[in-house]
Automatic annotation (TrEMBL):
Keywords: Cytoplasm, Redox-active center. This is Glutaredoxin-C8. The keyword Nucleus does not apply. It comes from Abeliophyllum distichum. It is found in: Cytoplasm. NCBIfam families: GlrX-like_plant (TIGR02189). GO terms for cellular component: cytoplasm. The keyword Hydrolase does not apply.
Length: 132
């Protein structure tokens, strides 16, 4: 499994004015709270085949993830920026992005690796997304 990162640690720091930075800070705090308040969150883009695969795997396991399609969400651009910062040090694409139990699990590679090695279901159970 990929190293867990704390979404609340991500901050805006790209030279924006004080007011704009404060507004972005608030948006990032809301995103972090949203991720923490849901057992499984999947950020996707409609039409993305890898996003579809991740959603189908989770649905097939009996998980009802909270799915946010960034191209249909009013704050999609800001969430996408958040995800880019989250994966900045890796070669990973920002979507799909899967959060389990308030922690960043990763994209398609991390989810599939956890599924194959048998750690995904226990992780989902610990987060309260599965009751079996």
């Amino acid at each position: 499994m990929q190293v867990v990162k704390d979404p609340s640690a991500i901050r805006v720091g790209n030279g924006e004015s004080g007011a704009a930075a404060a507004q972005m800070e608030t948006i990032y705090e809301k995103i972090s709270r949203f991720i923490s308040d849901n057992a499984v969150v999947v950020f996707t883009i409609s039409g993305c085949c890898m996003c579809h695969v991740v959603k189908q795997l989770l649905f097939g396991l009996g998980v009802g993830p909270t799915v946010v399609e960034l191209d249909h969400d009013a704050f999609g651009r800001y969430i996408h920026d958040f995800l880019f910062q989250l994966v900045a040090d890796s070669k990973q694409q920002p979507v799909p992005a899967v959060f389990v139990g308030g922690k960043f699990l990763g994209g398609i590679e991390a989810v599939m690796a956890c599924h194959i090695n048998g750690t995904l279901v226990p992780l989902l159970k610990d987060a309260g997304a599965l009751w079996l």
